[in-house]
Amino acid sequence: KAGVTQTPRYLIKTRGQQVTLSCSPISGHRSVSWYQQTPGQGLQFLFEYFSETQRNKGNFPGRFSGRQFSNSRSEMNVSTLELGDSALYLCASSLGQGEQFFGPGTRLTVL
Amino acid sequence: QKEVEQDPGPLSVPEGAIVSLNCTYSNSAFQYFMWYRQYSRKGPELLMYTYSSGNKEDGRFTAQVDKSSKYISLFIRDSQPSDSATYLCANLIKAAGNKLTFGGGTRVLVKP
């Protein structure tokens, strides 16, 4: 069974730009969660989508948004990028609730 | 104060030793407890998942949960150099969907 895939794996953007990251969950999984990982703050929850609906949201500004498609694939978007948005963005998939399996992440660098 | 706390380490042990990792939490609403292993520049890998107080064993790994003390442990027996990684505990509240609250992680070095 294929694992969680994320594209792109690496991304370099400049301040003020916007970026879209993609996540394909494990086949059959309906929940996709997004996390931001930085050396200073560790792993922080961004939001979760289940059956195309946002089920939960973390404490991030509105510049961070996401969506989920009918095939459970998910995208997250960050608008008006800031230097502090440089991080590893991870998505995790789950059948419903419980065990979550992470992808390899997208490393975003904002210059 | 963070909701989930871990000693950042590094924790250095010789090959073959038992690695003992700990995590404390402050929110008594946490119901599910997980341990993840993360190698440098990789995504976290789920090692253990439990929801009740007591012990759960899987191969060389044993997870221990004490809800009354809000204390979680992970033991790794017969440690190998390939166990060198950062270990993250993560907690979840059932009513919060799949929102995981992570500790900061403990870096482990297993020396040959």
Question: Would you give an account of this structure?
Answer:
The complex is a heterodimer of chains A (111) and B (112). Chain A is an all-beta fold. Chain A is built from no helices and eleven strands. Chain A has strands at residues 5-7, 10-13, 19-24, 31-38, 42-50, 53-57, 64-68, 74-78, 87-94, 101-102, 106-110. The model of chain A has no long low-confidence stretch (mean pLDDT 95). By secondary structure, chain B is an all-beta fold. Chain B is 0% helix and 54% strand. Chain B has strands spanning 4-5, 11-14, 19-25, 32-38, 45-50, 54-58, 61-66, 71-76, 85-92, 100-102, 106-111. In chain B, strands 2, 4, 5, 9, 10 and 11 form a six-stranded mixed β-sheet that branches. In chain B, strands 1-3-8-7-6 form a five-stranded antiparallel β-sheet, with no helix packed on it. In chain B, a hairpin with a 4-residue loop joins strand 7 and strand 8 (71-76). Chain B starts with a strand and ends with a strand. In chain B, 38% of the residues are buried. The interface between A and B is medium-sized, with 26 and 24 residues.
